Write a sequence for this structure.
């Protein structure tokens, strides 16, 4: 493997001094890029995800075209429910659909937790290709969905504003919920370790729906599984946890084995630094809708954001995925503003 | 008007000592009650809202059948966009649809802000009927949507997970956004004052989508308008503000003219008391999904919730609307648990 020419994100995660923060954007490989849209017209979603050459090409697009400081594997968090044996349908411009939801113990018992390197072999092949194509230009981020968020989809069967069915399942059948969460955790640990073996330099765990839980329920249904994953995987590569909406968990998670915490825009940089006692690398938290503003406003706000977070122990990013209607030059302005910081 | 036999909620809002907290539930008049469902089968949504006799009957159902300490007018926050001249469609079990969204200055100029007592005369008639039927049993709550939340629907045209279009409108055309927010504020103040004149003993302002905004943007697009409403209406009746998801705003709002603040379950009672310096009445914050648990668990958790909030300056409630699939005896158990507190 080639030595990394740009290891800013790894330095930031180790808490080392940097000249400027690293920058990438959640969902940077995807729907706002014209070259991605061309591929979308030719291949359906899971063809793009499961064909290593296509996943590799999509992963590299924002590195080449937008200039981010890290590549993130093009994939989806629902490949894990799929690898566990569930049917996952993804229609373009619609949310995911899992027609056979988990309802009872038999459904959980039937879920597969092994063979991950075989069932998700296409991911490992994609990572190898990407690593080779990157040739050390920037680090490569692997990822997985957090157990709570995957349970949401596996029980609810689709996206939801409040995931009431998933929560009902947890609150009324907590033992079943925990056995499901543990199964997801077990396979996710295997999956992320395999990603690191295949070339991922760091990994991020997306708990996109943890904010649906109260602080008490987060500690029951989300946190223990996030920590299991972090403890197991951080021995092999730095781990970023992104419990979206769960600002209340930052104090405890800042003491975990994770190297970084993602935050959304529901709290200010100052609040996040205070809650984490300035002891861990933070990533975020620009409101993606703000990329629709004029470029001059974006540049001004990015500078203010870095001023507020500080240059060190910080990874500039959005607070959630980039929107499909963001012009490419606005995405580039976001990245450029970080690169120009301090000049 | 008859003297109130149960004025617990007014006492709680004035900060007076009470023997137990008052209790009501957001969306208590509605979809989980079999008698409501019977009316839904006979009359469409806006017939139920706009026919004072039907709105009165629905408003009284939870007082008679569940035993809450306050009635809340059966209506909808979208009657204001409707009164401003917009078309609002509400299909059963679907979200609202506003086919002609606000896009530009001409659309805003065309919106009506006067004649509210005429255009929403059916609400005032319903309040009079309800007040008469209540005969002083419990206080009557009036309500309106907050300007930011109404802007969300008026610009986006329907419900959304993130209201990106509404936010894009605000971030890219802030002057237009402020002129729209001011128009909504003006009519809302007239509307809430008219509700008080017609019999409402207190009012609640629902900012259901304020949590989509960062702390900085909340102060720009939500807070000034909430405060205008609170300042104007609190001269006539106590005001409860419910900025759902905007926990970060609690410190400042606790110093406002509002008598109470609603909170959701994303923060603990202790966090909310600390953020508000224990200086204002708090309302909430039971996770509605938890009403699907066994009755014994509900009763135990309600007791713990009151222990945590304290008996005074507290209104027991859910952190969001009751779910359609909650059994009536579970809703009753929630109310009973509050009434039995300390026995």
């Amino acid at each position: 493997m080639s030595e990394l020419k740009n290891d800013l994100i790894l330095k930031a995660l180790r808490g080392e001094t940097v000249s400027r923060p690293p920058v990438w954007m959640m969902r940077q490989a995807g729907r706002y890029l014209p070259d991605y849209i061309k591929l979308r017209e030719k291949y359906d979603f899971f063809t793009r995800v499961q064909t290593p050459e296509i996943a590799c090409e999509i992963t590299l697009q924002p590195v080449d075209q937008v200039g981010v400081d890290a590549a993130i594997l093009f994939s989806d968090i629902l490949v894990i429910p799929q690898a566990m044996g569930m049917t996952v349908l993804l229609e373009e411009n619609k949310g995911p659909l899992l027609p056979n939801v988990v309802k009872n113990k038999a459904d959980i018992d039937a879920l597969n937790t092994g063979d991950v390197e075989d069932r998700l072999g296409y991911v490992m092949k994609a990572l190898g290709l990407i690593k080779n194509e990157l040739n050390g230009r920037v680090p490569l981020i692997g990822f997985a969905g957090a157990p709570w968020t995957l349970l949401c989809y596996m029980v609810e069967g689709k996206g939801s504003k409040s995931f009431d069915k998933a929560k009902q399942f947890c609150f009324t059948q907590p033992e079943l919920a925990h056995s499901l969460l543990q199964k997801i955790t077990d396979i996710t640990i295997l999956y992320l370790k395999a990603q690191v073996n295949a070339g991922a330099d760091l990994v991020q765990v997306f708990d996109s729906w943890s904010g649906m839980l109260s602080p008490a329920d987060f500690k029951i249904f989300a946190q223990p599984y996030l920590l299991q994953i972090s403890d197991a995987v951080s021995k092999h590569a730095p781990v970023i946890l992104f419990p979206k909406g769960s600002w209340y968990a930052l104090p405890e998670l800042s003491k975990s084995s994770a190297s970084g915490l993602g935050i959304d825009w529901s709290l200010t940089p100052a609040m996040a630094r205070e809650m984490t006692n300035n002891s861990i690398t933070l990533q975020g938290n620009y409101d993606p809708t703000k990329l629709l503003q004029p470029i001059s406003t974006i540049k001004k706000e990015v500078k203010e954001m870095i001023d507020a977070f500080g240059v060190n122990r910080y990874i500039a990013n959005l607070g959630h995925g980039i929107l499909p209607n963001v012009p490419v030059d606005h995405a580039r302005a976001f990245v450029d503003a970080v690169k120009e910081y301090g000049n």
Q: What stands out?
A: The CA atoms of residues 251 and 335 of chain B lie 29 Å apart. Chain B has one domain: 26-283.
